[in-house]
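Support reply, case 0932

Customer input (verbatim):
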Amino acid sequence: MYRNLDLTALRSFITVAETGGVTKAAAQLHLTQSAVSMQLKRLEEALGQPLLARDGRGVRMTLHGEQLLGYGRRMLALNDEVWSRMNDQAFEGEVVFGVPSDIVYPHVPGILQRFAQEFPRVKVQLISSFTSRLKQMLHAGEVDVILTTESGLEKDGEIIERAPLIWVGAPDGNVWQEIPLRLAFEKNCIFRAAAQAALSKSGLDWEIAVESNSTRTIEASVSADLAIHASLAGATSPYMEAVNHNGALPELPMFNINMYVSHGKQRDMAQALADYVRAAYGVNVAQAAE
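Our regenerated output:
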């Protein structure tokens, strides 16, 4: 036969154990002392074990009480989490987050996870595309928050991070030493023109060895040491690493990671998500709001 613990009585027991007395627990729970004492008595009777012992200094837990305390805390934490998730009406709906594929790592997975934990009733749709396309979608009201990779900053944008572009290749690869230098880029990648211009200015011969609309194709080709690529420092795919060229390849320019937030109907949720982006990149949220 199944028997259920009284969670209200369990909460009273845990509060008494944590505050050290019935009087303090009653005040914290907004109950009378007699109500708390009655709940404790019911809990002891239900379990058939003494949970608290009274002495001149107040109350102390018995061995059974100490054992129950750990279980009880976990039960109430789960109860409170369920209640919060089922009844939280502060945010509800969907927010669309657009990010270029080459800056998904390292921060975006953590941003999505923390936002989902805080706002479980909000669905976050992640869209990965090029900066130009994401801006078009923002202006059309199709996304709520976007990150972009740009050399400058447009109106209503916010610089989240500024980082240099670096050459990346296969771990322990050597294709970067070949002439002409073999490059792998997506057709619309904003870093492509910057890399080509730097190579041409330095007098190094190069060729596009791999061209694709797929980020995965570029990653696979580079990780197989078929070509090299360029990405922002700190945002390199796990399948590639910075090329240790010791000055054999030209330095690449700095780029911004910018954020743009929609002012549409989901603006409150969008601003909440934007705060998580700022926190992940180490931007002072209070200063950003000024």
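We compared this against your earlier run and they match. Two observations from our side: The first strand starts at residue 52 and ends at 55. The mean pLDDT is 90. Please reopen the case if you see a mismatch on your end.
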